[in-house]
Amino acid sequence: MTYEVVVIGGGPSGLMAAIGAAEQGAKVLLIEKGNKLGRKLAISGGGRCNVTNRLPVEEIIKHIPGNGRFLYSAFSEFNNEDIIRFFERLGVQLKEEDHGRMFPVTDNAQSVVQALVNELKRLHVDIRLNTPVADVEYEHGKTIGVTLKTGEFIGAKAVVVAVGGKSVPQTGSTGDGYAWAEKAGHTITELFPTEVPITSNEPFIQERTLQGLSLRDVALSVLKPNGKPIITHRMDMLFTHFGISGPAALRCS
């Protein structure tokens, strides 16, 4: 069988890509190697799913690690306000919390996942779960489809690789897409963690003295060896058994 668009990956990017292609009238197949869609989305924001941020685009880009200016072109096509309107059109009412964070009023990430799945069904997107992809196939410099690990070939005029990085392997993000991107001629830069909890070997962490303590609206700073701050974020923070977590720690990381 041949599709106009095959999307690999049933996470947030894959779900949105499949919906976007189907809205344009394309015949779309969404392939997910796991047994359910939106697994990472369902655990985001502490299970509440912070779908976007309502701060100005310039402020959002300022907090992107490295050179975030490359996002200006993408945001000119579909920005954070578009995301808010998109979900509200799907019936997901959102609320704004501190620092511009947008959550569903249900405080339940599953309501966001279900809204996306319902839209896929309404648009008649074909979905295949438990279907790992072995490779993306090219011919004469163009994509022609994908080969599944079963050996089955599925033809496609376009393939969207939306498999995520390597950050949360338990949700299926195991870095499959890097080899496919490199095969297509892309350059893969060195990988490093970002937006992650911070580990510490401080005695009070190892002794778990403060484990479970949650602090509201505190300033967390990253310091140079000379003690001068590199950056400071004022948000919520949580002491854990391995270090610190919460929005402030994730942002500083």
Can you put this structure into words, describing what you see?
- By secondary structure, this protein is α+β, with helices and mostly antiparallel strands.
- It has 9 helices and 13 strands.
- Helix 1 packs parallel to helix 6.
- The chain has 2 domains: 2-183, FAD/NAD(P)-binding domain, CATH 3.50.50; 198-252, no CATH class.
- The strands form 3 sheets. Strands 6-2-1-9-8-7 form a 6-stranded mixed sheet. A 4-stranded antiparallel sheet has the order 10-13-12-11.
Task: Give a summary of the structure in a few sentences.
By secondary structure, this protein is α+β, with helices and mostly antiparallel strands. The protein has helices at 12-23, 39-43, 57-62, 71-77, 80-89, 109-122, 176-183, 203-206, 247-252, and strands at 2-8, 28-31, 52-53, 94-96, 101-104, 126-128, 133-139, 142-148, 153-161, 198-199, 214-223, 229-239, 243-245.
- DSSP strand count: 13
CATH superfamily membership of the largest domain, which one? Answer: FAD/NAD(P)-binding domain
**Backbone shape:** globular
What is the domain total for the residues? 2
Content of β-strand:
25-35%
Give a quick account of the main beta sheet: strands, pairing sense, barrel closure.
6 strands, mixed
Ends: how far apart?
Answer: 45 Å
Counting DSSP H or I runs of 4 or more residues, the number of helices is: 9
Radius of gyration, CA atoms, in whole angstroms: 20 Å
H-E order: EHEHEHHHEEHEEEEHEHEEEH
* The CATH topology of the largest domain: FAD/NAD(P)-binding domain
Low-confidence stretches: none
CATH level-1 class of the largest domain: Alpha Beta
Helix content: 25-40%
Secondary structural class: alpha+beta
In the CATH hierarchy, the architecture of the largest domain is: 3-Layer(bba) Sandwich
